[in-house]
Amino acid sequence: MSTSGAGTKISEKRTRLSKQINIFVLLTDAFGGFGGIAVYNRDVLTAMCKHPLVDEVVAIPRVAARKLEPMPQKLRYKTRAAKGIIAYMAVLARNLHKAAHSDVIYCAHINLVPLAWMIGKLFRVPVILAIYGIDAWQPTNRRLTNWMTRKIETVVSISEYTKAKFITWSGVSSENVRLLPNAIHLEQYGESSPSSEFIQRFGLNGKKVILTFGRIVSKQRAKGFDEVLEVMPELLSDIPDIAYVIAGDGDYRPVLEEKVKRLGLTGRVIFTGFVEESEKVSLYSAADVYVMPSRGEGFGFVFLEAMACGVPCVASSVDGSRDAVRDGKLGALVDPDDKTGLKKTILEALDKPREVPAGLEYFSFPKFTQRLHAIIDSTVAGGSAQKMPCPRGEK
User: Fold this and answer.
1) Average pLDDT over the chain, rounded to an integer
2) DSSP calls for 1-36
3) Domains (ranges, CATH) in the chain?
């Protein structure tokens, strides 16, 4: 390539990054949603709107069942799309002109890849795909979705673990997969004394409290509730006043409650049920250690929340939880299959002082915003997507 040609391309990239940027977003849920992906997507949309060159972000959500949180001014959040698949497609069709004039299509779930990919190709707009955990650890059951996923310009992974699992089956180059771990809004947390009302409600007065917080559903048995229950009898022999709090709710709760009875742990294990956002800090403040020896976490945002409240953490060494505690720098790691190691690590964590780890700043929302802006800038600078014919045999 000639020097003049290279100069022209650099000039074109600078021109793209000097104009206003519009972003079109396809997502499952964010504002008005519940769970880790909704929290992550709220941060993504908010950070997008903080980009100095972003003029407008148009987002089409599949779900918005809860009350909407305050939203950034640049965001156009099309909640009518959340009324069902027909409503979603109708709203999407009415907003295709927005997609046509966008600079980036952000696809917030691998199941939405067919829509994002086709829109991107139709209007020659680059696509960013976000991946989280089990959604991207193995191929989907749709061959066409898998093929389209391999053609996405930029993939954003929540963790190194998910990135490695995704690359293994997709064959996507490591250079095309960027890391964007969860953000923690540190100003919303901090060390504090537990609420006396919260302590009294669950009978935790004078107890050493182990906490696990998450959805208690059968398909997520890998969160590690069972493993902690199985070491509780031994923990009680060393610390008679210990209590295990399982926060959250779901269809697997009755199974765990039966296991509690079978292990003779009635009164030693407390099920809080669903915990409102407003009570999260009280929940973490009541805990002496946060434990989640999971097998299926893509990241583990709850670790960031617990650490932001000064709670020592015990995380799994075999999934994306490693990323949340930065491979042991911010919290302890343990193999879920090692019961002796789990007990030992919990006891060691109970002896640690409550403090917010200095390294937690790595996951701060300003850092998250900087990372996302860099990904948007490089995607926009990369130019328009090129149309590619679908290969024979793919349906």
Assistant:
1) 90
2) --HHHHHHHHHHHHHHTTS-EEEEEEEEEBTB--SH
3) 9-183+367-381 (3.40.50.2000), 186-361 (3.40.50.2000)
Q: Tokens for 387, please give them.
A: 């149309």
Is 50 exceeded by the pLDDT of residue 8?
no
Say which amino acid occupies 53: L
Which residues partner with 71 through β-bridges?
Answer: none
Hunting for tokens 């022209």 — which residue is that? 8
Strand pairing partners for 316? 334
| Tens-digit pLDDT profile for residues 44-83 | 999 999 999 999 999 999 999 888 999 999 999 999 999 9
pLDDT band at 383 (very low <50, low <70, confident <90, very high): low
End-to-end CA distance of the chain: 38
How far CA 94 is from CA of 12, 33, 54, 170, in Å, comes to 31, 23, 22, 33
Cβ-based burial of 97 (10 A; exposed 0-12, middle 13-18, buried ≥19): exposed
Amino acid identity at 5: G
Tokens of 325: 């505690």
CB 372 within 8 A of CB 48: yes
Task: Please check whether residue 203 is in contact with residue 173, taking contact to mean a CB–CB distance below 8 angstroms.
Answer: no
Two tokens at 337? 């299959």
pLDDT in tens, 202-234: 999 999 999 999 889 876 567 899 999 999 999
